[in-house]
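Box 3.1 A note on notation
Throughout this textbook, protein chains are presented in two layers. The first layer is the amino acid sequence; the second is a token string describing backbone geometry. Keep the layers aligned when reading.
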Amino acid sequence: EMLIRSVLRSASAASALKQCTADQSNFRSIATKATSKPPAPTKGKKPPSKATKIEQAQATIPETFLKDQAELRRRQLAEDEKNPNADVFPDGRPLFTSAASLSTLCKDDVNTYFRFSMDELKEVLPEGLPPGMVKEFEESWRSALLVRQHFIELRDNFRRAADPPSLLVHSKAPTFRKQIVLDGPVSCGKSITLAMLVYWARKEGWLVFYVPGGRSWTHGGFFYKNPHTGRWDTPVQAAAILRDFLKYNKPCLQGLKCSILDPVPLGEGAGVGPPRGGDEMEVARGTTLCDIVEAGIRNTHAAVGVVVRLREELSKVSSVPVLFAIDQYNNWFTFTEFEEPVTVRSCRPIHAKELSTVNAFRSMMHDNMMVGAFSHSTAVGKLRLELPDVPLDSRINLPRYSFDEAAAVSRYYLRQRLVKQESFSEENWKKIFFLSNGNGTEMRYLFPFMR
């Protein structure tokens, strides 16, 4: 009996010791998890941007809910089309202008909206629409833009430059400039203003060389150093430039004959090396500008030379007004993504002015009409005020929305059901205006959150 009791006491003690050890082990694991530091962020990864956060938030919203909201808004906008009172301001002024074209807009149409036809807009601007314009149309569900005083002044300036009025001896001549650089803060409407100017000029019958993305001239594709000129040829970009220019201007180019009959120099083609059999392309008498542009598109060796020759030919056209309109113009005063090997382990960045295409079109020191718009969303760095090959008095600063413009924009977004009627108030839209400092993109983003 004593032996049996001794064995039972030993087994009980061993079981208790085992349970205590297990409890201590569990306690240590829990304490370790509670006191352990959070994992360090992975190096090299940037925090998600605002657009990424918006996409992640939208991904959590049920798709059926979004479809129902879109269908409800579509029905409400259809009902608003039948209500003429929806297209007026509280003071009775019309929300949309009655002008039939951009050419007939006047000061009375300022701070109203001009309706565009999307089919006609894509036809007149086949090179592409500015991203800000596309986003505005998508969010507001209508192809309409605000008529700003700055656009009317810019349009009238080039109208006078193309056809200076005949003035009496004692009358004061209105001033105008043939070269203008549009500058201003981010999202102030530079690209949209430039696109509207190109649209107006082409509807007036002008020949417009429009570049919606100047940055594309300095990024991507092949690049070769031309031994004859000492500059860098980019045949891929040159062919794209010629194709874009031909999209809308082909009928006009077919009626313009070449003024320069010198042979067009050939260079290296895109991935095919130097030309064989000759280094020049002959230009016969009677050749039209359309013929030479199409030849540059077909022959990759001649693409860069034709672009440079096209700039010279356009400067000699007098039968029709010619306008050069360059968006993202500031990218032509910074470095490209191309590099020239200097040693085995080092390269030299190539400046935009060293490219043959950019060098031919960048300068404003001439008598041709030219307008360039800066794009700070694609800016590499801040440029100095005095730019080479640009007149000192050519820069115009476009401001962001003024108070009156923001009031018109707010009523337009209310009309397009971007904000709910019960949430809209004078106090709320003024808060958004001052919070965004007149930034059009931020105002459009904040309006749906109005409460």
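Residues 16-38 have pLDDT under 50 and may be disordered. The two ends are 85 Å apart (CA to CA).
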